[in-house]
Amino acid sequence: MLKRSKEIKKCQKGITLVALVITIVILIILATVTINMAFGENGLVKYAEEARDKTANSTIAEAEGINSMVDQFANVMAEDSEIPLPDPYVDSVLSTAPKLSDGMTPVKYEEGIGWVKTNEYDSSWYNYANKEWANIVLGDATFIESGDKEILDEEKAYSMLVWIPRYAYQITSGYHQSGTEINPSDGTTGAGNINIVFIDTENKNKEGTTTYSESYPKYATGSGMEDYVVHPAFNYGGTKLSGFWVGKYETSNTDCTTDKSTGEYDGIDKTVTIKANVTSWRSITISNIFTVCTDMNNSSNAYGLSTDDNIVDPHMMKNSEWGAVAYLSQNAIYGKGSEVWINPNSNYITGQAGGSVSAPEATSANAYNTSNGQQASTTGNITGIYDMSGGTWEYIASYVNNSYVNNYESTLASTPSKYKDVYSVGSSDSYEFNYAVATPDKGHYGDTIWETSGNTGSPWTHSWYSDYSSFPNINSLFFIRGGVYAYGSPAGVFTFNCTNGYSNGDVTFRVVLPVL
Fold first, then answer.
1. Is residue 292 part of a domain?
2. Within a domain: residue 29?
3. What is the CA radius of gyration of the chain?
4. 12 inside domain
5. Number of domains in the chain
6. Per-residue model confidence as pLDDT tens digits over 96-148
7. With contact defined as beta carbons under 8 Å apart, do 277 and 348 qualify?
8. What do you get for the CA distance between the two ends of the chain, in Å?
9. How confident is the model over 370-380, as a mean pLDDT?
10. In this structure, are strands 149-152 and 229-230 parallel, antiparallel, or unpaired?
C-alpha cells in the first residue's frame, strides 16, 4: 500500500510539471501574438500611428479650409469683387423692380401690426397688379423689435415714399373735357379713362414684344389719343428713369405736431419729414422749398442718402410728376380708378379723410389706416399716396416764364431744367391765353392740365371730376395743386390753381426722389 501511494504522489508531481510547461508555452504563444498584434505590420501601434497621422492631416486640412474661407471673404470685401446676389423681386406687371439706394428701407403694412421692415426680395412687398404700391422709409426712421419683426415707430420722425414705375399711357375718353362734359346726361361729374402699360428704360413692355414711343400721337377732343406715349416725367434731364419715389404725404418737419401753428415756418434750418398724423409744413417760400428738398442728400443729411447727385437727386415736385401720380391713380387696374377723397382737416393734418368724397371741413378726421382714411389714397388702400386732394395747396416747381419770374423766384428760375416745368406766355399774359398754349404740340402733356380739362376760368371747375382749374398768369405765375381742406368738390388730383412764390399759410409742398 505504501509503495502504491508513493507511486501516486510521484505521478501527481509529474502532471504538475507538465502542466507548468504547457502553461509557459501557452503564455509564450499569447505574448508572441500580442506583440505581433501591437507591433506587427498591421498591429495596434501601427494603427495608432496611422490614426495620429490622419488626425494631424485632418487638422491641417481644417486649417487650410479656414484659411481658404478667410481668403474668399477678403476677396468678397475687395472693391473689385462682384458678389453674386439673387435678383430683386419683380411682380407680374412691372418691367423692372423699384430702384433703391443707400438710406432706403422697404416696408410693408401688416394689419394690426403696422409698417414692418422687409427687403427687396420679399414677394409681399408690393403687387401693382393688385393696386399695392411699393413703400420705403428713409434712414431717419426708427424701428421697434417685436419677436421676429421690426416695426416702424410712427411716434418718432420718419420719411415715407411711394414708387411710381415708368409707364406709357393712353387717354381713351374724356380727352380735353371737363367733368360735366363727360357725364352730362345724369348731372354728375366724371373723368376719362386712362390706359397704362409699365415699361423699362428702353420703353419696352414686360414681355419685350412692344416698344412705346416718346412722340405724342394724334388726338381728338372727347375720344382721346390714337396710341400710347411714354410719360414725360420719366425722362429726367436726359436720364431715362425706371421710376421715381414720391412723398407719401404732404411734407412736414421734425418740429411739426398736431398743432397747426408748428407747421408755419419760412426757413431752411429744419429737417424734412414725410409722415402721417402731423400738420404740414407751410408758410415757406418756393426758394426755401427748393433748398430743403435738394438738401436732403447733402453731407449732413439725416436720411442716409448718397451725397452724390449722380445717384439720388431729391427735389421739389413738378407738374409732370404730379401728373404721373394722378394718371396712375385714375387707371382702374393699377390705381384707385375713381375720385380720391378730400382731406378736410382744417388743422392740415396729413393722411386723413372725411366721411365722403367731398366731405366738409373738420377739425379732426379719419386717419390714413382706417377704412375711410384709405379712400383718400391714390390706390384706395393703405399703399398709395395721400393728401393729393385737400389738406392744403401744394407749391409745384412749375410756372409761366414771364418777365416777373425773377422778381418772385430767382432760385427756381436759374436752376437746371430737370428740376422744373416751364410754360410759355400766350398772346396775352392771362390765364386763358396761357392755357391755350399749354398743349401737347407745345410739349405739355401728362401734367393733368390741358388733356384733363375743358377750359380754364369762370366757373373755375373745368377739370375732370369738376376739379378747380385756374391757369397761372402775369402776377400769379406759379402752379399750386390739389386744393385746400375747405374746397369740397373742386379739390382733387386734377385741380390746378396759381399764386406768387411768396410764403403762404395755406401752401405746402411734396418731395420727389429719383434714383439715377
1. no
2. yes
3. 38
4. yes
5. 1
6. 999 999 999 999 999 999 999 999 999 999 999 999 999 999 999 999 999 99
7. no
8. 127
9. 98
10. unpaired
